[in-house]
Amino acid sequence: MENKVILLVEDNPRDEALTLRALKKGNIVNQVIVAHDGVEAMDYLFGTGTYSGRDITEMPQLILLDLKLPRIDGLQVLQKIRADDRTKRLPVVIFTSSNEEEDVINGYKLGANSYVRKPVDFEQFAEATKSLGLYWLVLNLVAPPD
Amino acid sequence: MENDGHKQAEAALRESQARLVGIVDSAMDAIITVDGEQRIVLFNAAAERMFLFPADEAIGQPLERFIPERFRPAHSSHIQSFGQTGITTRAMAGARAIYGLRSDGKEFPLEASISQVEAGGQKLYTVIMRDVSERHLAEERFRQVIEGAPNGMVMMNSDGRIVMVNTQIEKSFGYSRDELIGQSIEMLVPARFRDHHPSYRNGFLADPTTRPMGSGRDLYGLRKDGSEFPVEIGLNPLETPQGRMVLGTIVDITERKLAEQKLLRSQKQLVNVIGTAMDAIITVDDDQRVVLFNTAAERMFLFPTDEAIGQPLERFIPERFRPAHSSHIQSFGQTGITTRTMAGSRAVYGLRADGEEFPLEASISQIESDGQKLYTVILRDITQRKRAEEELKEQSRILDLAPVLIREITGRILLWNTGAEQMYGWTQDEAVEKNVHTLLQTEFPRPLEEIKARLLAYGQWRGELVHTTRDGKRLVVASTWVLHRDGQGKPKAILEINNDITERRRAEEEVRRLNEELEQRVADRTAQLEAANKELEAFSYSVSHDLRAPLRHINGFSQALLEDYEDKLDEIGKDYLRQVLDASREMAQLIDDVLQLARVTRSEMRREAINLSEIARATVTELRKGTTRSVAVSIEEDLSTHGDKRLLRIMLNNLIGNAWKFTSKRERAEITFGRENRDGQNIYFVRDNGAGFNMEYVDKLFGAFQRLHSGEQFEGTGIGLATVQRIVHRHGGTVWAEGEVGNGATFYFTLADFKEL
Fold first, then answer.
1. Which of B397, B402, B405, B464 is nearest to B430 (CA)?
2. Are B720 and B657 in contact (CB under 8 A)?
3. Beta strands in B44-95 (DSSP E)
4. What are the pLDDT digits (tens) for A1-60?
5. Which residue among A39, B29, B282, B355 sits deepest, i.e. has the most Cβ atoms within 10 Å of its Cβ?
């Protein structure tokens, strides 16, 4: 289980800190890679830029994607993930503070597996994160590699 | 002495003799006395005149001298036999005519009586004669008159036997006179009357005066062939030498009776006509008093006929017209014209019994009857007609307002009314005969030929033309053309009605221009609003994110602090952190509510048929999930309406959520969602038995951020009801609340049923 990586695409350091804490609280001990914007996320996934040379056969088990990102925003990232064969089947959970209908619709339209709203209340936040982790990392069966 | 007596006797005798001579001589009848040898011994003055023979020559002549030769033998034997009879006096000859012979040889008829005396042993015969030639002539004339009379004449003697008839009688009764003369008059009388007839005859003879027979009775004559005919009989008594006769004049009144009947019939008809005439008929005499007043007059003047008779005609004329009227009648009477209408163009007025005046049409006629003039007026109450005429005049005045012209197919103007004169400035005289298209410089919307074709096909054409008035002003005219065909269906003329719509056009243009402007402004404003909306949307969007994020962090790190440094914090410190956490949660809720309100305000409404009961049930189900409370919820079934499902769900969530919240302190919470009908309107309500509220502050309820309870009592941001109100308003309804502190609250709302709008 430990080699299953979680890619957290989150630009806000506080949200980052809280999310990591929540994951820890939830006993999710997988390695969490944090990309601070869309570009970084892409770099990681495709082994470019900062992450050039990475072994891209090792894909994350779960991508937690925030929508409000600088440079390329979350939906665009999602689009790109889904556009590429190598990444298109990766579970992407949109994890964002927005519950705008439009975002939800677009998120699903673009192929998100799930849409979870970051609750303000941290208790709930932790619960949500734990559930997510549990589900996506443990229960859910990922598509086998081609 | 003897001589004295003798002388006295002689004197007396002489005196009486002289007297006798005097009488004889002054007698108008001829007196001739003859002796036994029929020699004249006395021949008076009248005899002298009668026979034209002087007395002194006559004395001693034989009487025969004065008798026509053929009668002489008979005559002398008559005298002799008379002498033997011993009768003193008698009429001579009876029915036979006796004739005398004048000295000039002329014969003349006589009537004579003879008397005899014996004096001194001698017989003396005295004949008194009367020349009846006049009488005979008269009788002859009489006979001729009778004969020639157009009426039947019958002479009857006192025994009722017919003595004489004339030709007319023969004709009327179908008998020849021989069949009648000597017969009883009763043969001319129909059987049923015969019995009484003799007594009537005798009655007449007893009191013979010239008079008509059988007054009051219908008399009939009986013809030879048995048929009867009506007669009028006049009776004249006649004294004749043959005795008392009755001359009856018999007039065949068959014709007259028929005429009478006809007259009666026509009179009846006339009475009927007058009676049933719808026009009032009043006849007045020379003094202008009413003698006839028919039923229609009764109705017209509201005056009973029997009271009207005898009234002056004036009674039925309004006072101010009376003097003129009576002089009219008089002058009319003098004109001799039989009949004419009264007043001509002037209105004549009548006066009803109740004082009401009304306009009349009258004609007057006059006839003369028995030397009296009678005037008959026939009247018609023309109130209705006048009213109709007025209306018609009014209508034609109105009609004249519209410009109307009639023209031939070629365009030559035949009629040009007042309205046309006014609109175009050409008078009728100027316009008639001219070509309308030239005169008005008509501009057509399509070729005239096309228009004509359409007119011929449909009988009508309507369109807009441009006409130029006499002054050169251009008018836009809405024109209607109607085709008139003659008896054979050939197009004959066109009726054209024009309406000046220049102003209207101008107004329409103006309106259109204003509309466009308005549209433009609206578009601009809408654009502005949309822009504003978009901004708001962007704002809300960023609000939801940008505000929440820090909030999350505050909360998160406070929580982290609370958990990770629990042992390093005292209770107060922990409490502070808990406060921070609470505050952050509150703010989160507030943000959500505000966002919802904003969304509710600007989102597009999607109308569909919805079932409020279902939505309410779903809400309740969700609410039940988070709690173990026992809440009795009653939801009325099938509350369907039309509206935006999403918004109404938010609304019900708020209302029921509130009810849920405010009943949280009740042991047994009761919430009802239903609908009632007040004055035909559907009113929905959510009722709870919770904490209620003070009605004093009811106005504040729906204001945003208004709270009537502190956060300690019940959590809440105070936005919920503002949202409810916004949604209800967007649905065209109203929302209000009733409550009582400690005794629950009811929230009412109405929704306009969009389907009906």
1. B405
2. yes
3. 89-91
4. 446 899 999 998 888 988 888 888 888 888 999 999 889 999 999 999 989 989 888 899
5. B282
* Number of helices followed by number of strands (H, E) in chain A: 5, 5
Question: What single-letter amino acid sits at B556?
Answer: G
What's the gap between Cα A46 and its chain centre? 15
Asked whether the beta carbons of B404 and B415 are under 8 A apart, the reply is: yes
Tell me the sheet residues that pair with B362: B379
Find out whether A37 and A11 touch, Cβ atoms under 8 Å. Answer: yes
Say if residues B298 and B305 touch (Cβ distance below 8 Å): yes
- Could you read off the pLDDT of B111-129 as tens digits, one per residue? 888 888 887 778 888 888 8
Where b means 16+ CB within 10 Å and e means fewer, B693-710 reads: beeeeeeebbebeebbee
Spatial contact of B700 and B706, defined as CB atoms under 8 Å apart: yes
Nearest CA in chain B to A15: B553
Q: Find the residue in B nearest to A99 (Cα).
A: B544
Of B541, B553, B559, the CB nearest to A123: B559
**Contacts with A123 from chain B: Cβ below 8 Å:** 559
Query: Is A7 buried (19+), middle (13-18) or exposed (0-12) by CB count in 10 A?
Result: buried
Task: Give the span between the Cα atoms of B474 and B472, in whole angstroms.
Answer: 6
Quick check: A120 and B585 CB within 8 A?
A: yes
Residue of A nearest to B556 (CA): A122
Interface probe with A: pick from B536, B541, B545, B554, most Cβ of A within 10 Å? B545
- pLDDT at residue number A3: 67
As a whole number of angstroms, the distance between CA B425 and CA B422 comes to 5
The count of other CB atoms within 10 Å of the CB of residue B339 is: 12
Closest chain A CA to residue B558: A122
Q: What are phi and psi of B112, to 5 degrees?
A: -140, 150
Split at pLDDT 50, 70, 90, the class of B513 is very high
Residue B110, Cβ density class (10 Å: 0-12 exposed, 13-18 middle, ≥19 buried): buried
Angle between helices B571-602 and B720-730 in degrees, nearest 10 = 10
Phi-psi region for residue B692, left (φ > 0), alpha (ψ -120 to 50) or beta?
A: left
The alpha-carbon gap from A52 to the nearest alpha carbon of chain B, in Å, equals: 32
Whether the Cβ atoms of residue A97 and residue B533 lie closer than 8 Å to each other: no
Nearest to A120 among B541, B557, B584 (CB): B584
Task: Show the CA angle centred on residue B209, arms to residues B205 and B213, nearest 5°.
Answer: 80
Measured CB to CB, residues of chain B less than 8 Å from chain A are 541, 544-545, 548-549, 551-553, 555-560, 581, 584-585, 587-588
Q: With beta carbons less than 8 A apart as the criterion, state whether B500 and B440 touch.
A: no
Handedness of CA B511, B516, B521, B526 (dihedral sign): positive
Predicted complex ipTM: 0.78
When computed from its CA atoms, the radius of gyration of chain A, rounded to whole angstroms, is 14
The set of long-range contacts for B562-569, using a CB threshold of 8 Å and a minimum separation of 24, is none
- Asked if the C-beta of A130 comes within 8 angstroms of chain B's C-beta atoms, the answer is no
DSSP string, A34-101: EESSHHHHHHHHHT-GGGTT--TTS--SEEEE-S--SSS-HHHHHHHHHHSTTTTTS-EEEEES---H
The token pair at B44 is 């008076």
**How far is the alpha carbon of A109 from chain B, nearest alpha carbon, in Å?**
20
Q: What is the pLDDT of residues B418-429, one digit of tens each?
A: 889 989 999 989
Q: pTM for this one? A: 0.40
Question: Which of A18, A100, A123 faces B553 most closely, judged by CB atoms?
Answer: A18
How close A73 gets to chain B, by Cα (Å)?
14
Q: Are B92 and B75 in contact (CB under 8 A)?
A: no
